[in-house]
Amino acid sequence: MSRRNLSPVDIAGITLGVIAILAVAGSIVGLARQIPFGHRWQNMDMGDFWQGRTESGATRAEKEDRFPADISEIEIRNIAGSIDIHGGSPDALVVHSVRTAMMPGALENIRVNYERNGSRLVMEEKHTGGFFRSAGTVAFDVTVPRGVKVIEVHSVSGSVTVEDVQPGISQKLTTVSGSISTGKAGNLDVSSTSGSITFVFGGQDLEARTVSGSIQGKIDALSRDGSVRLHSVSGSIEMDAYAALDASVSLHSLSGAVSCDFPLSATDQKRSSLEGRIGSGAARLEATTTSGPITIRRM
Protein backbone atom coordinates (compact mmCIF):
# COMPACT_ATOMS: atom_id res chain seq x y z
CA MET A 1 0.00 0.00 0.00
CA SER A 2 1.45 3.39 -1.01
CA ARG A 3 1.95 6.11 1.57
CA ARG A 4 1.03 9.69 0.62
CA ASN A 5 3.58 12.39 1.51
CA LEU A 6 2.25 15.29 3.53
CA SER A 7 1.97 18.54 1.64
CA PRO A 8 3.04 21.91 3.14
CA VAL A 9 -0.68 22.71 3.65
CA ASP A 10 -1.16 19.46 5.60
CA ILE A 11 1.86 20.19 7.79
CA ALA A 12 0.70 23.75 8.46
CA GLY A 13 -2.78 22.53 9.43
CA ILE A 14 -1.40 19.91 11.81
CA THR A 15 0.96 22.44 13.37
CA LEU A 16 -1.85 24.98 13.96
CA GLY A 17 -4.02 22.30 15.55
CA VAL A 18 -1.24 21.26 17.96
CA ILE A 19 -0.54 24.91 18.89
CA ALA A 20 -4.21 25.58 19.63
CA ILE A 21 -4.55 22.44 21.77
CA LEU A 22 -1.40 23.24 23.76
CA ALA A 23 -2.54 26.85 24.27
CA VAL A 24 -5.93 25.79 25.64
CA ALA A 25 -4.36 23.19 27.92
CA GLY A 26 -1.76 25.68 29.14
CA SER A 27 -4.39 28.31 29.91
CA ILE A 28 -6.53 25.87 31.90
CA VAL A 29 -3.54 24.55 33.85
CA GLY A 30 -2.36 28.09 34.59
CA LEU A 31 -5.75 29.10 35.93
CA ALA A 32 -6.08 25.90 37.93
CA ARG A 33 -2.82 26.68 39.70
CA GLN A 34 -4.36 29.87 41.05
CA ILE A 35 -7.09 27.82 42.82
CA PRO A 36 -6.27 26.01 46.10
CA PHE A 37 -5.91 22.27 45.53
CA GLY A 38 -8.77 21.35 47.84
CA HIS A 39 -11.22 23.40 45.76
CA ARG A 40 -10.15 22.58 42.22
CA TRP A 41 -12.63 19.82 41.56
CA GLN A 42 -15.35 21.80 43.30
CA ASN A 43 -14.66 24.84 41.18
CA MET A 44 -14.52 23.15 37.77
CA ASP A 45 -18.29 23.29 37.39
CA MET A 46 -18.61 23.46 33.60
CA GLY A 47 -21.41 25.97 34.12
CA ASP A 48 -22.30 26.28 30.46
CA PHE A 49 -22.70 22.51 30.19
CA TRP A 50 -25.14 22.27 33.06
CA GLN A 51 -27.04 25.37 32.03
CA GLY A 52 -27.68 23.86 28.65
CA ARG A 53 -29.32 20.81 30.27
CA THR A 54 -31.26 22.43 33.14
CA GLU A 55 -31.91 26.00 32.02
CA SER A 56 -35.65 25.84 32.68
CA GLY A 57 -35.07 24.72 36.28
CA ALA A 58 -32.24 27.11 37.18
CA THR A 59 -32.59 29.30 40.29
CA ARG A 60 -31.10 32.76 40.74
CA ALA A 61 -30.12 35.04 43.61
CA GLU A 62 -29.05 38.66 43.21
CA LYS A 63 -27.12 40.76 45.71
CA GLU A 64 -25.65 44.25 45.83
CA ASP A 65 -22.56 45.05 47.94
CA ARG A 66 -21.14 48.54 48.42
CA PHE A 67 -17.60 49.56 49.36
CA PRO A 68 -16.02 52.97 50.11
CA ALA A 69 -14.78 55.04 47.17
CA ASP A 70 -11.19 54.96 48.49
CA ILE A 71 -10.53 51.63 46.71
CA SER A 72 -8.01 52.16 43.90
CA GLU A 73 -7.42 48.56 42.73
CA ILE A 74 -9.92 45.78 42.04
CA GLU A 75 -9.41 42.14 41.09
CA ILE A 76 -12.12 39.70 40.00
CA ARG A 77 -11.60 35.93 39.88
CA ASN A 78 -14.41 34.07 38.20
CA ILE A 79 -15.01 30.55 36.90
CA ALA A 80 -18.14 30.87 34.77
CA GLY A 81 -20.26 33.94 34.12
CA SER A 82 -20.04 37.33 32.46
CA ILE A 83 -18.09 40.23 34.00
CA ASP A 84 -19.14 43.82 33.26
CA ILE A 85 -17.22 46.78 34.71
CA HIS A 86 -18.21 50.40 34.15
CA GLY A 87 -17.96 53.85 35.69
CA GLY A 88 -20.71 56.05 37.08
CA SER A 89 -20.56 55.82 40.89
CA PRO A 90 -19.00 58.95 42.48
CA ASP A 91 -19.18 57.88 46.13
CA ALA A 92 -18.86 54.07 46.25
CA LEU A 93 -17.74 50.90 44.51
CA VAL A 94 -20.86 48.85 43.84
CA VAL A 95 -20.83 45.11 43.10
CA HIS A 96 -24.02 43.55 41.75
CA SER A 97 -23.65 39.77 41.63
CA VAL A 98 -26.07 37.22 40.20
CA ARG A 99 -25.64 33.62 41.36
CA THR A 100 -27.31 31.00 39.19
CA ALA A 101 -27.60 27.39 40.35
CA MET A 102 -27.97 24.72 37.73
CA MET A 103 -29.21 21.95 40.01
CA PRO A 104 -31.76 21.91 42.88
CA GLY A 105 -30.27 22.95 46.21
CA ALA A 106 -26.96 24.12 44.71
CA LEU A 107 -27.53 27.86 45.14
CA GLU A 108 -26.53 27.81 48.81
CA ASN A 109 -23.16 26.31 47.84
CA ILE A 110 -22.25 29.23 45.56
CA ARG A 111 -21.06 32.51 47.03
CA VAL A 112 -18.98 35.62 46.36
CA ASN A 113 -16.00 36.10 48.66
CA TYR A 114 -14.44 39.54 49.29
CA GLU A 115 -10.97 40.27 50.59
CA ARG A 116 -9.71 43.80 51.14
CA ASN A 117 -6.04 44.65 51.60
CA GLY A 118 -5.53 48.39 51.97
CA SER A 119 -6.88 50.06 48.86
CA ARG A 120 -7.12 46.76 46.94
CA LEU A 121 -10.36 44.74 46.79
CA VAL A 122 -10.45 41.13 45.53
CA MET A 123 -13.78 39.48 44.74
CA GLU A 124 -13.89 35.78 43.94
CA GLU A 125 -16.46 33.15 42.99
CA LYS A 126 -16.42 30.34 45.56
CA HIS A 127 -18.07 26.89 45.58
CA THR A 128 -18.58 24.35 48.36
CA GLY A 129 -20.40 21.03 48.66
CA GLY A 130 -18.74 18.97 45.97
CA PHE A 131 -18.91 18.85 42.19
CA PHE A 132 -22.62 18.09 41.66
CA ARG A 133 -23.89 20.13 44.60
CA SER A 134 -22.10 23.33 43.55
CA ALA A 135 -22.81 23.51 39.81
CA GLY A 136 -23.56 27.08 38.82
CA THR A 137 -22.27 30.46 37.71
CA VAL A 138 -21.74 33.96 39.05
CA ALA A 139 -22.18 37.07 36.88
CA PHE A 140 -20.61 40.33 38.07
CA ASP A 141 -21.73 43.87 37.29
CA VAL A 142 -19.28 46.29 38.96
CA THR A 143 -19.59 50.08 39.07
CA VAL A 144 -16.29 51.76 39.92
CA PRO A 145 -15.61 55.28 41.25
CA ARG A 146 -13.16 57.67 39.60
CA GLY A 147 -10.32 56.80 41.98
CA VAL A 148 -9.78 53.30 40.58
CA LYS A 149 -6.34 52.98 38.94
CA VAL A 150 -6.00 49.22 38.37
CA ILE A 151 -8.49 46.62 37.08
CA GLU A 152 -7.53 42.94 36.98
CA VAL A 153 -9.82 40.13 35.79
CA HIS A 154 -9.26 36.36 35.58
CA SER A 155 -12.09 34.25 34.13
CA VAL A 156 -12.30 30.67 32.87
CA SER A 157 -15.57 30.86 30.93
CA GLY A 158 -17.36 34.13 30.26
CA SER A 159 -17.14 37.46 28.48
CA VAL A 160 -15.33 40.46 30.00
CA THR A 161 -16.42 44.06 29.30
CA VAL A 162 -14.95 47.32 30.61
CA GLU A 163 -16.67 50.51 29.44
CA ASP A 164 -17.39 54.12 30.40
CA VAL A 165 -14.57 54.25 32.94
CA GLN A 166 -12.16 57.14 33.34
CA PRO A 167 -9.22 57.17 30.87
CA GLY A 168 -5.83 55.74 31.79
CA ILE A 169 -6.73 52.81 34.06
CA SER A 170 -4.15 50.00 33.93
CA GLN A 171 -5.94 46.78 33.01
CA LYS A 172 -5.06 43.09 32.96
CA LEU A 173 -7.91 41.00 31.52
CA THR A 174 -7.77 37.26 30.84
CA THR A 175 -10.33 34.60 29.92
CA VAL A 176 -10.01 31.10 28.50
CA SER A 177 -13.36 31.05 26.71
CA GLY A 178 -15.05 34.35 25.95
CA SER A 179 -14.67 37.71 24.27
CA ILE A 180 -12.99 40.74 25.85
CA SER A 181 -13.93 44.37 25.18
CA THR A 182 -12.37 47.35 26.94
CA GLY A 183 -12.27 51.11 26.42
CA LYS A 184 -10.07 54.00 27.56
CA ALA A 185 -7.35 51.72 28.94
CA GLY A 186 -3.94 52.93 30.04
CA ASN A 187 -1.38 50.12 30.14
CA LEU A 188 -3.22 47.04 28.90
CA ASP A 189 -2.49 43.30 29.07
CA VAL A 190 -5.35 41.29 27.55
CA SER A 191 -5.56 37.60 26.67
CA SER A 192 -8.23 35.17 25.44
CA THR A 193 -7.73 31.58 24.31
CA SER A 194 -11.02 31.36 22.44
CA GLY A 195 -12.64 34.73 21.76
CA SER A 196 -12.26 38.09 20.09
CA ILE A 197 -10.51 41.11 21.65
CA THR A 198 -11.65 44.72 21.21
CA PHE A 199 -9.88 47.65 22.86
CA VAL A 200 -9.30 51.40 23.05
CA PHE A 201 -5.81 52.20 24.35
CA GLY A 202 -3.86 55.29 25.34
CA GLY A 203 -0.77 54.52 27.44
CA GLN A 204 2.74 53.09 27.35
CA ASP A 205 2.47 49.32 26.98
CA LEU A 206 -0.17 47.21 25.23
CA GLU A 207 -0.12 43.44 24.77
CA ALA A 208 -3.07 41.53 23.29
CA ARG A 209 -3.08 37.78 22.62
CA THR A 210 -5.70 35.35 21.36
CA VAL A 211 -5.43 31.81 19.98
CA SER A 212 -8.78 31.66 18.18
CA GLY A 213 -10.29 35.07 17.55
CA SER A 214 -9.78 38.46 15.97
CA ILE A 215 -8.12 41.54 17.50
CA GLN A 216 -9.63 44.94 16.76
CA GLY A 217 -8.62 48.14 18.48
CA LYS A 218 -7.91 51.83 18.55
CA ILE A 219 -4.78 53.61 19.76
CA ASP A 220 -5.51 57.14 20.95
CA ALA A 221 -1.98 57.74 22.26
CA LEU A 222 1.32 55.90 22.69
CA SER A 223 4.31 57.00 24.79
CA ARG A 224 7.49 57.62 22.82
CA ASP A 225 9.22 54.70 24.56
CA GLY A 226 6.07 52.55 24.59
CA SER A 227 5.29 49.30 22.84
CA VAL A 228 2.31 47.58 21.21
CA ARG A 229 2.36 43.80 20.73
CA LEU A 230 -0.61 42.05 19.10
CA HIS A 231 -0.69 38.30 18.42
CA SER A 232 -3.34 35.94 17.08
CA VAL A 233 -2.94 32.34 15.96
CA SER A 234 -6.21 32.16 14.02
CA GLY A 235 -7.77 35.56 13.36
CA SER A 236 -7.41 38.95 11.75
CA ILE A 237 -5.80 42.01 13.34
CA GLU A 238 -7.26 45.48 12.67
CA MET A 239 -6.08 48.65 14.36
CA ASP A 240 -6.78 52.37 14.00
CA ALA A 241 -4.13 54.74 15.34
CA TYR A 242 -3.91 58.48 15.94
CA ALA A 243 -2.38 60.52 13.12
CA ALA A 244 0.79 61.50 15.04
CA LEU A 245 1.86 57.90 15.70
CA ASP A 246 5.67 57.66 15.91
CA ALA A 247 6.83 54.03 15.91
CA SER A 248 8.91 51.35 14.28
CA VAL A 249 6.58 48.79 12.71
CA SER A 250 6.80 45.02 12.31
CA LEU A 251 3.80 43.22 10.76
CA HIS A 252 3.78 39.52 9.83
CA SER A 253 1.04 37.14 8.68
CA LEU A 254 1.62 33.57 7.53
CA SER A 255 -1.47 33.40 5.33
CA GLY A 256 -2.91 36.90 4.95
CA ALA A 257 -2.22 40.29 3.44
CA VAL A 258 -0.57 43.09 5.46
CA SER A 259 -1.36 46.78 4.97
CA CYS A 260 -0.53 50.10 6.65
CA ASP A 261 -1.83 53.44 5.34
CA PHE A 262 0.59 55.62 7.36
CA PRO A 263 3.45 57.34 5.51
CA LEU A 264 6.19 54.81 6.19
CA SER A 265 9.89 54.32 5.51
CA ALA A 266 9.94 50.61 4.67
CA THR A 267 13.02 48.44 5.11
CA ASP A 268 11.25 45.25 4.04
CA GLN A 269 7.84 45.02 2.38
CA LYS A 270 6.02 41.98 0.99
CA ARG A 271 2.39 40.93 0.66
CA SER A 272 2.37 39.21 4.05
CA SER A 273 5.07 41.14 5.95
CA LEU A 274 6.15 44.71 6.54
CA GLU A 275 9.09 46.24 8.39
CA GLY A 276 9.57 49.98 8.57
CA ARG A 277 9.34 53.22 10.48
CA ILE A 278 6.61 55.80 11.00
CA GLY A 279 8.16 59.13 11.89
CA SER A 280 11.36 58.66 13.92
CA GLY A 281 10.32 55.20 15.14
CA ALA A 282 10.33 56.18 18.82
CA ALA A 283 7.88 53.51 20.01
CA ARG A 284 7.51 49.88 18.92
CA LEU A 285 4.49 48.33 17.16
CA GLU A 286 4.40 44.59 16.41
CA ALA A 287 1.53 42.50 15.04
CA THR A 288 1.64 38.82 14.06
CA THR A 289 -0.98 36.27 13.04
CA THR A 290 -0.79 32.79 11.57
CA SER A 291 -4.11 32.94 9.73
CA GLY A 292 -5.65 36.26 8.71
CA PRO A 293 -4.86 39.75 7.42
CA ILE A 294 -3.27 42.61 9.38
CA THR A 295 -4.50 46.17 8.81
CA ILE A 296 -3.18 49.39 10.38
CA ARG A 297 -5.24 52.49 9.58
CA ARG A 298 -4.58 56.18 10.23
CA MET A 299 -7.39 58.00 12.04
Give the structure's gist in a few sentences:
With 299 residues, the chain is mainly β. It is built from three helices and 20 strands.
Please give a structural write-up.
This protein is mostly beta strands and 299 residues long. The chain folds into three domains: 8-40; 41-161, no CATH class; 167-299, no CATH class. The chain is built from three helices and 20 strands. The chain has helices spanning 8-33, 40-43, 47-54, and strands spanning 59-68, 73-80, 83-87, 92-101, 110-117, 120-127, 136-144, 150-157, 160-163, 169-177, 180-194, 197-212, 215-234, 237-241, 247-253, 258-260, 265-269, 273-278, 283-291, 294-298. The chain has a 20-stranded mixed beta sheet that branches. A hairpin with a 2-residue loop joins strand 5 (110-117) and strand 6 (120-127). The radius of gyration is 22 Å and the shape is globular. 37% of the residues are buried. Mean pLDDT is 85; it is low at 6-14 and 16-56.
Into how many domains do the coordinates divide?
3
- Fraction in beta strands: over 45%
- The count of DSSP E runs of length 2 or more, i.e. the number of strands, is 20
Largest sheet: 20 strands, mixed
Oligomer: single chain
Mean pLDDT: 85
Shape: globular
Present the secondary structure layout.
Blueprint: H1 8-33, H2 40-43, H3 47-54, E1 59-68, E2 73-80, E3 83-87, E4 92-101, E5 110-117, E6 120-127, E7 136-144, E8 150-157, E9 160-163, E10 169-177, E11 180-194, E12 197-212, E13 215-234, E14 237-241, E15 247-253, E16 258-260, E17 265-269, E18 273-278, E19 283-291, E20 294-298
Parallel strand pairs: 2-6, 2-8, 3-7, 3-9, 8-10, 9-11, 10-11, 11-12, 12-13, 13-14, 13-19, 14-20, 15-19, 16-20
Antiparallel strand pairs: 1-4, 4-7, 5-6, 15-18, 17-18
